[in-house]
Amino acid sequence: MSVDTVGHDVAASPADVVAELRRREVVDVDDSSTTRALYSTDASLYRVVPQVVVRPRSVEEVLAVLDASRATGVPVTSRGAGTSIAGNAVGTGMVVDFAKHLNRVHEVDVERRVARVDPGIVHAALQKVAAPQGLRFGPDPSTHTRCTVGGMIGNNACGNRALGYGRSSDNVAALDVVTGTGERLTIGRDLATTSPTLDRLRDVVAADLATVRTELGRFGRQVSGYSLEHLLPERGFDVASFMAGTEGTLGVLLGATVDLVQTPRHVHLVVLGYGSMAEAGDDVPTMLPHGPIACEGLGARIVEVYRAAKGAAGVPEYPRGGGFLYVELAGDDPAELAAQAERVVADSASLSHRHVTSVAEQAAFWRIREEGAGLASRIWDRPALSGWEDAAVPPERVGQYLRDFDALLQQHGLNGEPYGHLGDGCVHVRIDFPLSEPGGKAGYRAFIEDAARLAASHGGSFSGEHGDGRARSELLPLMYSEQAVALFRGVKHVLDPDNLLNPGVLVDPDPIDGSLRTQGRGWAPGLQGSRRGLRLLHDDGDLGAAVHRCTGVGKCLADNKASHGVMCPSFQATRDEKDSTRGRARVLQEMVDGRLVTGGYRAPEVHEALDLCLSCKGCLNDCPTGIDMATYKSEVLHQTYRGRVRPRSHYVLGKLPFWARLTSPVAALANLALRVPGLAHVARWVAGVDQRRSLPSFATRRFSRAARPALEASAARTDRPRVAIWADSFTEYFSTSGGHAAVRLLESAGYRVEVVQKQACCGLTWITTGQLDTARSLVERTVGVLHEYVADGVPVVGLEPSCLAVLRSDAVELTDDPRAAEVAQGVFTLAELLARTEGWQAPDLSGTEVVVQPHCHQSSVLGFAADLDVLGRTGATVTRLSGCCGLAGNFGVERGHYEVSVAVAEQQLMPAVRAMGEGAVVLADGFSCRTQLDDLADVPALHLAELLAPGE
């Protein structure tokens, strides 16, 4: 192996790098094409495939990685949560993922108000540890549920409340770093660190103090370049604060001690409405003297996109206007805050306003603001992208800047909806760059250069908190003088003379239009034309465009239980990027690209990434950009196995309703046979079922037949409105008690109850196993059967959420029959029907504890608000669980999935069941959920119909 460690003329091979790392006892090292695909991009527009991914388990391993880098000449890029928007966390050499293992809070010192943490600790996890002491880490980016503190320090992130708490650089007490030369430094505001390296750094700055004093640190959000103002003598040569924002180009962070602040006792949010975002910007200087801890801007279009995606119930009432300011005030006295809020309103030039003091409603407003990046990407006809999403200007200039920026967008024929930290002058925006169209990259460069000149003309910064990365580093000469740029180079040479740390960023930058990834239209030869399974209506039938919906914002990495999110259950269990929605999307993007993942739909990388996808559809609702991984998985399986031999489970579990129908006449005999240990073992093997799983019993009498006497009595009540129960396969052939209870319940509610007698299977199990041709035939038949009722105005009630969800969403993806859309509007959950039934009285369940496990498909597709409404009427004490039960149809019973299935259940379901009081009722409408509870906890669960129905 011949390596030039300075010029990198001869690069070490991935095998050489892996060997060097393992020689140094670094354990978690991966150069597989799957993992390289996962880390080929962050949340930016850039695709840079690494040679190796390293997930260090200790500081010693990080030091070994740097040692291997110097030995091989292969550079190192540090990565936290991979939510970097400017291409700061991608690199050609070794990408070091700190989030997987180095993610602990080592100490919270309440007296000193500091916390000592690993670089990979998630911001929200630190807050959770500090909160019981009434403390918090001040900066709070919108990605706080998944971004890491190390990443925040690397980019000098600020977040929504920087007005109150400052930037990351303002909250660094001490850092443990290792430079590109391998020197380990402990630096901080109260530490007198001596080092020849630091002496040389001091000399570089001292040589041109005038440039530092006049060009750097002009306003709070000037993040572009190196923040050399921290190294001025009058600032105490604060190297720790200086290192914040250097984007991993000067040193690798090993640990940090960060400041904590007191959590405010009371918060008052004023939401102000303006005619436009520019008018909101004009009012910013008027707001700042009132001392808000946050002054955030949001465009009305983003609110409307959120409303369309989540429903009106999830959107609080906004004041009138096309642009909004969130002005948040904090303090100890609610009355004083209220008076302060009235002064804010009186001084503002807003059209209208709202005072928001409810914690829940405040959270709803902030949730919309925090999902702005994802929401803003789907406002226009073309996907809106990052690239120029982080410019900042002095706050007094923000209104005029927004007007000039809007004119620039129009000049280039582009669209964008601004939002962001207007109180700091920081403007975020996603722009519908036509990158995949002819001339798209040239147009991108032309706009970015004009936008940089515009920001500079306002005395602004190209980055306000995201860092320059690959997106803006090349532009720095448009903002800084030659002397300032020379200072940046001098600093880089002192701390990383061999350019081993995140090369291509800040100093000697890569071109802004280099390594741009396509947005789904650059399909590998032969792939695009083969997609004939699902219609993908939201992406014009293009799977490439669909998988590129993922922008990398990483909400799938977060613990979403607090907002009753489902996404992404397997990642929550494994904490492996491969098992996140984002990770799967990345691999599918590489499949479409065809350079790294070369095997198309049958590529092993694709199936490795999709293997632990539960098809829960959580991402369909929870992902801000609308990823639907369950649908993409079905399409991949359809293309992979069409006309080929399938896994055994596809023939048995994937056709379960078919086998249930055949078995029904001899159900008792089949049940008896499956209790024989040897036969049960063979049956599981044939079906591809894990031997630790039980086999469900068949109903000895089909629901629709057993219910006939009750239905005949109900049919005689001709003065009542009709309702039809659609007997899905699980209710019909396995768990019939919910069906019988539903008949009694709807009868007692004043309906004339019918059961759909014609065969009408939704095809769910065929869909999840990718047998889409058969699924389409089944769906089209079912749509025809149910449309007869819907066309007559008869509401159709589905009892199995997963099957009902097929009719609400998957059916229109499988067939272009216009009746499918009409059926989707005419089918209801039991709770939806009861909630709108006049005169229906819920039973009194006061004193009853009800633990509810919503089915994933109900949470994601159908919604659970009606169920909560109905349960609330009973007077019961209701505990709603979040997340997935872990069984998810055939997933949890298949061989190879048992451990993950159990781990998912342990995220919330199993602990809640173990903690519930004596006599508590477990409610689970999903057959899978009830099966999981029966298998893992031996706990019987009821269907909602059984809970509410009168006794027989």
Description of the structure:
The protein is α/β, with parallel strands linked by helices and 952 residues long. The protein is built from 44 helices and 25 strands. The model is unreliable at 1-10 (pLDDT under 50). The strands form 6 sheets. A 7-stranded antiparallel beta sheet has the order 15-12-14-13-17-18-16, with helices on both faces. Strands 5-6-10-8-9 form a 5-stranded antiparallel beta sheet. Helix 7 runs antiparallel to helix 19 and helix 35 (772-791) packs across helix 37.
Structural descriptors:
952 residues; alpha/beta; five-stranded antiparallel sheet; 44 helices; 41% helix; disordered N terminus
Mean pLDDT over the residues: 94
Q: Strand share of the residues?
A: 5-15%
Helix content: 40-55%
Q: What count of helical segments does DSSP give?
A: 44
What topology, given as strand order, has the largest sheet?
15-12-14-13-17-18-16
Uncertain runs: 1-10
State the total count of DSSP E strands: 25
Q: Could you give a short account of the major beta sheet?
A: 7 strands, antiparallel
Shape: globular
Distance between the termini: 81 Å
Q: By helix and strand content, what is the structural category? A: alpha/beta
Radius of gyration: 29 Å
Short structural description:
The chain is an alpha/beta fold. It has a seven-stranded antiparallel β-sheet, sandwiched between helices.
